[in-house]
Design brief:
By secondary structure, this protein is α/β, with parallel strands linked by helices.
Length: 857
């Protein structure tokens, strides 16, 4: 049989009321508790004209047939038949012929004269090719010529005529001359409201849809002194008001703009007001509403954006064709103009971010889940692609492969509609110095920290606890100890390196246990944040330490317990070189390019119970590591107290020191460093320039720290910093290791002495290594190579150094070996001058002289 028109058969108010709890009725809408889930707050809404329903909580939506199918647990077809049987409709009989819908029917529906509609509004009766009747509503341009047609098939049933796409325009433009004479115009949604206002004697234009108004349409409104924008009492009304107001602003409309709502008169729109009150009473009420209309300031529209969700991190305009709120995200169906739930989770955009170093743009997304707002930063390519936006599902959002495309469309429309409100903020993925002399944390309020979730623990460690005064009080007694004072000042030296163009260095405190090494490290890190979370240890991988250093950047990096590295000396030295180099490892990316290279300029604070370098360590290790040997505290009790005090009062001194740097200025800091460097050079001489610069940097930090945090006068600060430097440099010179090549020379000398029989006794049982003649040791190259590598020395590096210092003989071809008869055959051997080997030249270029030496003066 033909389908029965359920809108005519059913009273939707009575039908829905049978199945829901706590129904409430307002005009043509019903709200109640949702029958499909445990609903405690009415979230179920029904349009009593069309029978369509939506639950803003669980997201279910449909018509009365699908409602009954869901309740009864059957198909839509079975539910449809059941509804017909309940109302005595014989399914075997055909439905009566299709009812007509004419201009007369429309006139009766709107209580407007049919002849007036035909003459003034040019309405006509029409039929589709299949015989479906409709009312033809033509849209004329300013020239009076028809542009597009809208077909009204019945109450709340519309269809645009062929060729309407892209040619939309306001309804009533052919009456523009009258608008200019009146000097005012009311903008409303749809044709029927405009027709009603014309009938009541008011100039008006009908806008076809809440979100369709275009800036170019505003050009047709120039010359009108005052525009009144009608706002219907729903979210669509707010969208209409926002869309029109912003379009007028963009078009440079220079007339007055006001807004009013028939809701203040108890009705949805002018048509409903007229139907309720009649002509004269409706005119009086409209006069009252227009007189009370609120002016709109087009220049400051974004100062108070509408609140879609209470407590949301950002208020945004609703995008055309969409609506978001506590219920989630819904789209507005173009045919029915009803809301269709797309996603149950409210998801919005809050910030547009651009990285200062790479120019890459990202987007910050916020969503409400379990009553709380959450946010995260994502690449744009992830959020604006349906294949990848499902990553939000892992965050708790109800985004699936089914609705992903719709969510992407919503977010794209949301950004387009609010591009000005979102703005653009700079972002960075590292702490430390940023562009325009800004510093994170604490001194770049206009920047956003864009980091991976795995790094959140490190970022949140830069926090504040207690007070600065209590921190100063807990540190002051221990600054009389040079070792503690030096370690503490080294923490503040890190942000100075970029200013004075100084290289990265280690401050390594080692010695016996229970000396307070870890406590001193915590004290140093507490200047910047929670020391427990800021501190790493030598059990970490090289990659992890690289990531930490790249993230901390211009802040100190604390590494505790060298002994956790075990006997892996080679790996330990790689860590030293990598961190002191200030550049991470280059790595390929998935797209075939390179990952972003991490760089830093930091002071690395480390502790251990034994030296970080061995006798055969490369010289570069000793030049990069400034060793502070001994206990930083006087007694174990003081160290134990510091473990607690460091965490109780933390995170204050570092940001205050950065502010002092900013106030002081780079040039003043560079000048003061030059003075300090000269004093430290006088103390240390020229033997180790890298240590001289490192001590000078820490001494400078101590002087500045004394002035800005401990509030000492300049003379006292200088004197105490110099005393600390004197003590530290004395300890450095005592502990200074000889050059690795000197150690290799000493190793060869000792090895020859320990294996004397293998050189001198031709009757010795076992392997012979060579011979010694006239103070020269001749050694088989493979034997010497094996001995050096067993001792941990580089054979090629050692040979090169011995040749440069004339300790070994070089053949005419520049090789480090000479021809020598040995063991009844001619061999190539390394010829070493034993006296020169045992007395290598001083690395500073000096040698000891005697009275027998010829002097040039």
């Amino acid at each position: 049989m033909d389908k029965v028109n359920l809108d005519e058969l059913l009273n939707y108010k009575e039908e829905y009321s049978k199945f829901v709890q706590k129904p409430e009725y307002k005009k043509e809408r019903m709200t109640s508790l949702c029958p499909f889930h445990d609903d405690r707050k009415p979230s179920f809404s029904v349009d009593l004209k069309t029978g369509k329903f939506v639950c803003f909580a669980c997201g279910k939506a449909g018509n009365y047939v699908s409602f009954r199918a869901e309740l009864d647990g059957c198909s839509n077809a079975d539910a449809y038949k059941r509804i017909l049987r309940e109302h005595g409709v014989d399914e075997t009989k055909k439905e009566p012929a299709r009812q007509n819908y004419t201009v007369d029917d429309y006139a009766k529906e709107k209580n407007l004269p049919a002849d007036w509609l035909r003459m003034v509004c040019s309405l006509e009766d029409g039929k589709e090719k299949d015989g479906t009747p409709y009312v033809k509503i033509p849209y004329f341009g300013e020239d009076g010529k028809p542009k597009v047609t809208r077909k009204r098939m019945g109450p709340h049933k519309f269809k645009w005529g062929f060729g309407s796409a892209g040619n939309m325009l306001p309804y009533g433009l052919w009456r523009k001359e009258g608008l200019e004479i009146a000097g005012s115009c009311i903008l409303v949604e749809g044709e029927s409201d405009a027709q009603t206002l014309w009938f009541l004697g008011y100039p008006a234009l009908g806008i076809p849809g809440a979100s369709t108004f275009k800036p170019e349409w505003a050009k047709s409104l120039k010359g009108i002194e005052t525009l009144y924008i009608h706002k219907e009492p729903d979210q669509g009304g707010q969208t209409f008001l926002d869309k029109v107001a912003h379009a007028l602003k963009d078009a440079g409309f220079d007339g007055g703009v006001k807004t009013f709502s028939c809701a203040d008169g108890g009705q949805k729109d002018p048509s409903a007001l007229y139907l309720d009150l009649g002509k004269e009473a409706a005119q009086d009420k409209l006069e009252e509403l227009l007189a009370a209309a609120q002016p709109l300031d087009l220049e400051h529209l974004d100062d108070a954006l509408p609140v879609a969700i209470e407590g949301a991190p950002k208020n945004l305009r609703q995008p055309p064709g969409w609506q978001y709120g506590e219920f989630g995200i819904s789209r507005i169906d173009e045919k029915t103009e009803q809301l269709v739930c797309v996603c149950r989770t409210p998801i919005i955009l809050t910030k547009r971010l651009k990285k200062t170093d790479t120019g890459e743009e990202k987007i910050e997304v916020a969503w409400k889940r379990d009553g709380r707002w959450h946010d995260a930063i994502f690449p744009r390519s992830m959020i604006f692609q349906s294949r990848s936006i499902t990553v939000l599902a892992d965050k708790g959002c109800t985004v699936t492969s089914e609705n992903a495309k719709q969510v992407v469309r919503f977010l794209g429309a949301l950004e387009q509609e609010n591009i000005d409100a979102l703005g653009l903020q700079e972002s960075t993925s590292t702490f430390g110095w940023q562009s325009n002399h800004r510093f994170l944390p604490g001194h770049a309020p206009d920047m956003v920290l864009d980091i991976e979730p795995s790094m959140t623990r490190w970022a949140t460690a830069y926090c504040k606890n207690g007070t600065l005064e209590d921190w100063v009080a807990s540190m002051t007694p221990h600054r009389s100890r040079p070792r503690f004072r030096f370690i503490l000042a080294a923490s503040f030296a890190a942000p100075l390196l970029a200013i004075i163009k100084q290289r990265i260095f280690f401050v390594y405190n080692w010695g016996g246990s229970r000396g307070g090494k870890t406590a001193a490290l915590k004290a140093a890190l507490s200047a910047w944040g929670d020391p427990e979370r800021l501190m790493a240890n030598f059990n970490a991988t090289q990659v992890a330490l690289e990531r930490m250093a790249g993230f901390y950047c211009d802040l100190p990096l604390g590494i505790d317990e060298r002994q956790l590295a075990g006997n892996k000396q080679e790996g330990l030295e790689k860590i030293v070189y990598m961190l002191a180099n200030g550049t991470g490892r280059s790595r390929g990316s998935k797209d075939g390019g390179l990952q972003e290279l991490r760089t830093w300029r930091s002071v690395i604070l480390a502790t251990g119970e034994e030296p970080i370098g061995k006798a055969n360590s490369q010289t570069g290790v000793s030049t990069r590591v400034l060793e502070v040997v001994g206990a930083p505290f006087e007694d174990e009790t003081s160290a134990s107290d510091m473990h607690q005090q460091a965490a109780l009062n933390c995170g204050w001194a570092g940001p205050a020191f950065i502010q002092y740097i900013l106030d002081m200025g780079d040039s003043a800091i560079i000048d003061e460093y030059s003075e300090v460097l000269e004093r430290i050079r006088a103390l240390m001489g020229t033997r180790n320039g890298s240590h001289t610069a490192a001590v000078a940097t820490v001494t400078l930090a101590d002087q500045m720290l004394s002035r800005c945090i401990f509030h000492e006068d300049a003379d006292t600060a200088l004197m105490e910093a110099q005393h600390m430097a004197n003590c530290i440099t004395a300890g450095i010179q005592e502990q200074e290791q000889p050059d690795v090549n000197e150690q290799a020379a000493q190793y060869i000398s000792d090895w020859i002495s320990a294996n004397a029989n293998s050189f001198t006794d031709t009757n010795a049982i076992g392997q012979r290594y060579g011979s010694i003649e006239d103070g020269t040791a001749f050694i088989l190259p493979t034997i010497l190579r094996e001995a050096l590598e067993k001792g941990g020395f580089s054979y090629r590096k050692t040979m090169n150094w011995l040749a440069e210092n004339d300790i070994i003989q070089i053949d005419p071809h520049g090789k480090y070996q000479v021809q020598r008869w040995f063991g009844n055959r001619n061999c190539r051997m390394v010829a070493i001058d034993m006296e020169a080997l045992q007395n290598p030249p001083d690395p500073a270029g000096f040698r000891e002289i005697t009275d027998k030496d010829d002097l040039p003066f």
